[in-house]
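Q: Given only this backbone (161 positions), what sequence would you predict?
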C-alpha cells in the first residue's frame, strides 16, 4: 500500500521541535510532488546558511504577501524567512538576528470568529544606517503565534530604559 503524501504545512506541523537541521532537511521526502519541488527550491537557498548541527526550534509554511509563499524557520540565534512565487526562480531570503528585532507582535485575525485558523506575525527590525524594516508574516497557525512571539522575546536582548 502506498502512503499518501502530505502538504508542506502538514509535514512541518508533524515534526517534533527542536530538531537538528540535518534531520529537518529530509522532511521533503514526505511532501507531495507538486509541493516538494517548491520546498526543495527554498531549501537550496538556506542550506548553505545553516549548519547541520544547528537546531530548528520552529518551522511553518507562511506568506509574506498574497502571492509569495514560503517558510519561516526559528533557529537559536536568528529567524530565517524564505519566500517565493510558485513558478518563478526568484527567491526572497531574509535572515533576521534576534538582537536586531526592535518590536514584535501578533494578530490572530478576528478573535471573535473561531473558524479562523491563521494569524499574522509583525516584526520591526533595526537596520544599520537605514532605519527600520517591517515584516508581516501571514498564514501562521493561530495557536502557535503566542509561543513564537514568546520564544523570540526570550531571545531578544533586554533594553535598558
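A: Predicted residues:
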Amino acid at each position: 500500500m502506498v502512503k499518501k503524501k502530505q502538504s508542506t504545512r502538514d509535514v512541518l506541523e508533524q515534526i517534533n521541535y527542536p530538531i537538528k537541521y540535518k534531520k529537518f532537511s529530509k522532511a521533503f521526502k514526505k511532501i507531495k510532488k507538486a509541493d516538494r519541488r517548491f520546498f526543495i527550491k527554498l531549501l537550496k537557498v538556506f542550506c548553505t546558511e545553516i549548519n547541520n548541527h544547528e537546531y530548528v526550534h520552529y518551522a511553518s509554511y507562511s506568506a509574506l504577501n498574497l502571492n509569495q509563499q514560503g517558510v519561516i524557520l526559528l533557529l537559536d540565534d536568528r529567524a530565517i524567512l524564505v519566500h517565493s512565487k510558485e513558478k518563478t526562480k526568484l527567491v526572497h531570503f531574509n535572515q533576521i538576528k534576534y538582537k536586531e528585532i526592535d518590536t514584535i507582535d501578533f494578530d490572530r485575525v478576528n478573535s471573535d470568529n473561531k473558524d479562523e485558523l491563521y494569524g499574522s506575525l509583525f516584526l520591526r527590525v533595526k537596520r544599520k544606517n537605514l532605519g527600520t524594516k517591517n515584516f508581516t508574516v501571514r498564514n501562521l497557525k493561530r495557536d502557535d503565534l503566542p509561543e513564537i512571539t514568546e520564544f523570540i522575546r526570550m531571545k531578544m536582548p533586554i533594553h535598558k530604559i
